[in-house]
Specification:
Layout lengths: L2 E8 L6 H17 L4 E4 L26 H13 L2 E11 L2 E9 L5 E6 L5 E2 L2 E2 L13 E3 L4 E4 L8 H9 L4 E6 L2 E3 L4 H22 L3 E5 L1 E4 L4 E4 L3 E3 L5 E4 L6 E8 L2 H8 L23
């Protein structure tokens, strides 16, 4: 059996970029001390979630990848012997920006990056103002401990993205995330939204026979108008919840995943084997209405 210990870092952020990076490094150390081999940080962990407004000054938060944050994290990865999944605001060129996750291997080497493919544009989530859609396609990264697939937040709603990532050989799918509740919503709506968010990601584990790890930020932002709901979780390859974070506390948790279960579940629930790939051409259409 091949088992891997993954660390989930659910934390709140401030306006100070260096303070957030330093805090994340402390949390990575905590996860490593608990035995983590792969540590996943939440989406855009070096800042507040700035996409609640369209403000040109926020572009100053972006950086090159590789760049200062990955340089600092590579040192930590090598020192601790852990893989680090780091979601950052990438400045690719003058006027060209992406929502990007870098992957650093346990020897401190930079393995590459994944650029978020699906970009939302909703009230308080104005990401299309800041981010160019990813152009690297879906990605997997062979790390020391496992081949990992990375998707980012809004990607989590799309079974096509998770399916392609799984078909590329991902042993585990990671979702760095930033999502929350408007604080003027009622509790029933809050729970319905959270349940939908968790359910769609658990379904990716079931459909693909791959463990899913989703790491979300926590805390009040946007002058108290948004409560990021935390609720980070990890599932096995059948969608069983192995860890569930709180909605209001910072947490650093380590979960052991048995990667050999993927073979077992794919044998007994052979969804990959039974796919009718010859019938799926229409999926590339925007809508099937004859036009």
């Amino acid at each position: 059996m091949k088992k891997v210990k993954v660390g989930l870092v659910q934390m709140s952020c401030t306006k100070d970029k260096q303070e957030n990076l330093d805090k994340a490094i402390v949390k990575v150390r905590e996860a490593a001390a608990k035995g983590a081999q792969i540590v996943c940080l939440q989406e855009l962990f070096t800042s507040l979630y700035f996409c609640d407004v369209e403000d040109y000054d926020n572009f100053d938060l972006a950086e090159a990848i590789p760049g200062p944050s990955t340089d600092a994290l590579q040192v930590v990865a090598k020192e601790l012997g852990v893989v680090i999944i780091a979601s950052l605001f990438e400045k690719r060129a003058e006027g060209l920006y992406h929502n990007t996750t870098a992957v650093l291997d346990a020897d401190g080497s930079y393995l590459g990056k994944y650029r978020k493919m699906h970009i939302p544009d909703d009230p308080a989530f104005y990401e299309k103002f800041y981010f160019t859609p990813g152009d690297l396609g879906y990605k997997v990264f062979q790390t020391k401990f496992a081949k990992i697939g990375i998707l980012i937040c809004w990607d989590q709603w799309y079974p096509e993205a998770s399916r392609i990532t799984a078909l590329m050989g991902a042993d585990i799918m990671f979702y760095p995330t930033a999502i929350g509740w408007a604080t003027d919503q009622d509790e029933e709506t809050n729970q319905d939204q959270y349940n939908a968010w968790q359910t769609i990601q658990r379904s990716h584990a079931v459909a693909n026979g791959v463990p899913v790890v989703s790491v979300n930020r926590v805390g009040f932002e946007q002058d108290g108008a948004m409560k990021f709901w935390g609720g980070s979780f990890a599932t096995n390859a059948q969608g069983k919840i192995l860890y569930l974070g709180s909605h209001d506390q910072e947490e650093t948790e380590v979960v052991e995943l048995d990667l050999s279960e993927s073979d077992f579940f794919r044998k007994h629930w052979p969804f990959l084997r039974d796919r009718r790939i010859d019938s799926y051409q229409p999926i590339t259409k925007r809508y099937i209405d004859g036009d």
